[in-house]
Amino acid sequence: MTLRQAQDGGPSTALLTDRYELTMLDASLRDGTAERRCVFELFARRLPGARRFGVVAGTGRLLELIRDFRFGQDELRFLKDENVVDAATLDFLEEYRFTGSITGYREGELYFPGSPILTVEGTFAEAVVLETLALSVLNHDSAIATAAARMSVAAGERPLAEMGSRRAAESSAVAAARAAYIAGFGATSNLEAGRRWGIPTMGTAAHSWTLLHDSEEAAFRAQIEALGVETTLLVDTYDIREGVATAVRVAGAGLGGVRIDSGDLPTVAADVRAQLDELGATGTRITVTSDLDEFAIASLAASPVDSYGVGTSVVTGSGSPTAGMVYKLVARQDDAGGWVAVAKASTDKGSKGGRKAAFRTLDDGTATSELIAVSDGFEQLQTVASHPGARALQVTLMAEGEPDASYEGAAGVEAARAHHARVREELPVRALALSRSDPAIPTVYVDAE
Amino acid sequence: MTLRQAQDGGPSTALLTDRYELTMLDASLRDGTAERRCVFELFARRLPGARRFGVVAGTGRLLELIRDFRFGQDELRFLKDENVVDAATLDFLEEYRFTGSITGYREGELYFPGSPILTVEGTFAEAVVLETLALSVLNHDSAIATAAARMSVAAGERPLAEMGSRRAAESSAVAAARAAYIAGFGATSNLEAGRRWGIPTMGTAAHSWTLLHDSEEAAFRAQIEALGVETTLLVDTYDIREGVATAVRVAGAGLGGVRIDSGDLPTVAADVRAQLDELGATGTRITVTSDLDEFAIASLAASPVDSYGVGTSVVTGSGSPTAGMVYKLVARQDDAGGWVAVAKASTDKGSKGGRKAAFRTLDDGTATSELIAVSDGFEQLQTVASHPGARALQVTLMAEGEPDASYEGAAGVEAARAHHARVREELPVRALALSRSDPAIPTVYVDAE
């Protein structure tokens, strides 16, 4: 997709928005409610796929996209031509820049049902229009990271590479590579993710490389000529046993690795390992890449596999391609300036009104609950912020419209990855099982008033 | 995601690519195989989710992205700094522009297992590097269109709107809106899809609009003030029965519509219809939007619902977020200039070598088979091209590197939507059932030699 340039900065992200946000903005500017201070919260009612923990991802990307959430002449012209909003609203949008504050979970942090992953405070007008963009980014990236973390747990110390770009839309593939890296993957096949976010990239050859050549041997020779014997040769285009024999004959026993992309992997991996050892290639590594997900990875734990390449399942969230997070108005000021907690009342989609402060309670370093203090006002929450034996989960991501740059760019990604590795250590052992379950720790609400 | 500008045109798409494409390119330039003419085919081994037909989408988008597949100084610098390729390959990439030909299924066309959805012919060097981009676009967009078409079938004459942007990564949301529109949806909530592709946009208000106000009545009054009585009021923030009563009291019996986003929809829709009729609002339409998929839509066929809004399920392909298509080398020239059919030999991922020509055989206007003629050479296929009683499925999308502009932009989207509506009429009735099944028509291979 080609986005045109906004008045400054990167391509405008302002129209990555549901029309009703602007319709509401338009109506609120007419009746004066546009200026009411509001608190919106982004949270999940449940974890994707009945998993035991969720992983927040996308935060750093979102901050950058909010920088570019500006309405340039192209965007305004479209809104005018389509009669989406009136002239007064066009004037408002021309000057639009988010000036409020955003607090939230650090990228890489674990989350549970109800966790206030993002809290956006500002006027109704400036906060409502960020709904779609914030949800798009966090729903997608967190779904990928949550699936990727389980694969990372299943892989243990063995390296994992993300290779799923072809099974995701071209731009979300880049975001997926980033989310997987934050959740424990070590590399990606996606070059743009390497350029944009500094993620290590990898890849050697496909089956087409072998088929292009007059023989498998010619293909292997050419690859080694270009990449050296340390490269990884794909040995399953024709017959795997012959492929391995040819690989070692061509490269010698110092061959870096072989890759297997088909067949019954536990059997094939054992056979290939035995054959390699027999040929003296005891240091040659085995990479497997055939339709792996967290369950397939776990089932290979006892097999002589050295690393995994994961495609479709990680970029599609392994059955849960979206995290199902919502962005809800939870508190607003009334005309007298007092804060009012608000929430939808319906039974199946009810939510808890009021601003939240969130803590992870720990017992000897192990997480025991997601403690969420609820308040209609802001001041009361400060008194809960020093809850003993608990780690405060929210940080300031944006203050008066200024993002904290430490969460952005490649440095933000590395920090998120490190944070994730750290907080995953706090999980109780039962959280690491792959079967469907309730969340690993309960969400406990306390009233802060 | 922010993509930097390439040397000309839109942002470069060249790094939306798996590293191994460039590694293979690099090695092929060294050993001379880079210049071998090749035919790559993009096809699916099976339909997503055991469905009865697939819908091709993304073709027009892909043609535009291939225009921007150029390596500018930023892209080259990254590849050099990361030692992805050598200096000779950097020189090649600096001049890179696809000069081959692409034929394929028209966007909106139906497809079945083995259908040659895209056929890319050129040198190995120029064709191999398009693999990731082509698969990313077609796998995503076709998965969405395939799911959307089933929803469109289930909805019958009732209008369908796509509202799932928040549950998809921000850029794929735009592509998803486009794919759903091609497959029969009538509108989208996504403003960028409106600007970029000319798709009708819609939307009025969320629950936050009601919660922002001191009462539901105040919210409804303000919305009607801004949008007129023809607007749609969201009536389920508090109590639906009270919401409907308030809506009609405020707007009068001429209220355009009410939207219901929660509850047991068949029951609620019947109750709301009865209440509206009782209040004299017999022309007020009912829109439902709560977690709908094709099955929920079908189950509402007998309910008094006037239109549907679909979110998560359409943008995530209703359980099948990727179409699982692959891009395989199927034929190449040898040193003597003769064509050689090639294919991977493994049992579980085998494919059929040789260039294909595809036809849909019809009996009295109803599709009976996907007829695929296979040949090692090009000339022989011409003789099959006039197969009697069959519709040829492939068109020229790009000739000598020049895309056919009629497939691009908003006009391309409208043409694809019209084409889809037309060819869906050819499906046998059994193809329209929603249950899991074999494909509605068999794929039949004939040898053209």
UniProtKB/TrEMBL annotation, chains A, B:
Annotated keywords: Glycosyltransferase, Ligase, Phosphoprotein, Pyridine nucleotide biosynthesis, Transferase
Pfam families xref list: NAPRTase_N
E.C. designation(s): 6.3.4.21
Matches recorded under Gene3D superfamilies: Aldolase class I, nicotinate phosphoribosyltransferase
Record flagged with keyword Glycosyltransferase: yes
Function: Catalyzes the first step in the biosynthesis of NAD from nicotinic acid, the ATP-dependent synthesis of beta-nicotinate D-ribonucleotide from nicotinate and 5-phospho-D-ribose 1-phosphate.
Name assigned to this protein: Nicotinate phosphoribosyltransferase
Post-translational modification: Transiently phosphorylated on a His residue during the reaction cycle. Phosphorylation strongly increases the affinity for substrates and increases the rate of nicotinate D-ribonucleotide production. Dephosphorylation regenerates the low-affinity form of the enzyme, leading to product release.
GO MF term list: glycosyltransferase activity; nicotinate phosphoribosyltransferase activity
Family stated for the protein in its record: Belongs to the NAPRTase family.
Reactions catalysed, as given in the entry: 5-phospho-alpha-D-ribose 1-diphosphate + nicotinate + ATP + H2O = nicotinate beta-D-ribonucleotide + ADP + phosphate + diphosphate
Originating species: Microbacterium salsuginis
SUPFAM superfamilies: Nicotinate/Quinolinate PRTase C-terminal domain-like (SSF51690), Nicotinate/Quinolinate PRTase N-terminal domain-like (SSF54675)
NCBIfam families from the UniProt entry: NAPRTase_put, PRK09243.1-5, PRK12484.1
Pathway, per record: Cofactor biosynthesis; NAD(+) biosynthesis; nicotinate D-ribonucleotide from nicotinate: step 1/1
